[in-house]
Amino acid sequence: MKSLEVRVLGPLEVIRPDGTLVEPSAWRTGKTMDLLRILALENNQPVRSSSLVGLLWPDVDPAHGRGSLRTAASTIRAAVGQDVVTRQHGDLVLVSASVDLDDYRDLVAAVSRATARGDDHEAMLLIEAAEALYRGDFRANDDGQRWATFAREEFRRLRQRSLTDATTCALRLGHFREALELAYATVRLDPSSESAHRALMRAHAELSEIGQALMIFETYRTRLSEELGIDPSRETKELHLKILQDQDR
User: Fold this and answer.
1) Strand partners, 9
2) Does this model's pTM top 0.85?
3) Contact 73, 80 (CB under 8 A)
4) To 5 degrees, how large is the angle CA 145–CA 151–CA 156?
5) What integer is the mean pLDDT of 19-38?
6) Rounded Cα distance, 116 and 102, in Å
């Protein structure tokens, strides 16, 4: 039997085994949605009820918080039509669910392995699948809470890692337009990434867009100088010099 699909990268989406989408109104409250998000982060692993109460209802007395937790768990079960939130010795567990976070972690690891063994074509196929799965950053109803911030940053780091690996593969394959797209996506995630800026310089240069390559270097050099008081690395400066020399030939 097909399992419940839970998607928390981007807006919360839950698809029942029969293929129907759980309407947002079925969750009733943002706390219910955040409970599902927390359980999805620990898919198939128990989470202590006391911890859940502390995360979701920190400002109420424990008895009231436990009651709210029971109500939220019941609402999840009713919304999906399955007993997907079970109780184990005082803990809550999300069961019988396929969670996009797990699939995304697996894809990022697969991209890294393919890159390391030089299987560039495979890595490019895998990054395409990973990017399709990453519908947006992890968000929560109470988005500023530490647990939500931690999860969001974890998956942003994973995405940056996979984009960096895929950029390397695209450059090795000579797919310079794809390399540009991947490197620009990396820079949007981390404007300080020097490897991504080098990739941009190289890809633009390979596409005979020398002016753009040089502008990337100057913009990055200025940023480092003004914000950190440092220069680009020797590797980046050597690439810049090579581009200048090639331009003069």
Assistant:
1) 138
2) yes
3) no
4) 125
5) 97
6) 22
* Structure tokens that stand for 67 in this block: 């009651």
Q: Please report, as a single letter, which amino acid is at residue 112.
A: S
| Residue position matching structure tokens 């450059």 | 171
CB atoms within 10 A of CB 138: 23
CB atoms within 10 A of CB 76: 24
Question: Residue 108: what residue type?
Answer: V
Residue with tokens 């990739």: 199
Question: What is 161-177 written as a DSSP string?
Answer: HHHHHHHHHHHHHT-HH
DSSP 193-246: -HHHHHHHHHHHHHTT-HHHHHHHHHHHHHHHHHHHS-PPPHHHHHHHHHHHHH
Residues 45, 75 contacting (CB under 8 angstroms) = no
Instruction: Tell me what the pLDDT averaged over the chain comes to.
Output: 96
Q: What letter does residue 27 receive in the DSSP assignment?
A: G
Compute the residue count for the chain.
249
Over residues 29-73, the pLDDT tens digits come to 999 999 999 999 999 999 999 999 999 999 999 999 999 999 999
Residue 48 parent element (H or E)? strand 47-48
- Kindly give the pairing relationship between strand 85-88 and strand 47-48: unpaired
- DSSP H helical segments within 117-145, as ranges? 120-133
Q: Tens digits of per-residue pLDDT, 221-236?
A: 999 999 999 999 999 9
Strand partners, 92: 47, 87
Give me the sign of the Cα torsion angle 49, 52, 58, 60.
negative
Place of tokens 């079970």: 86
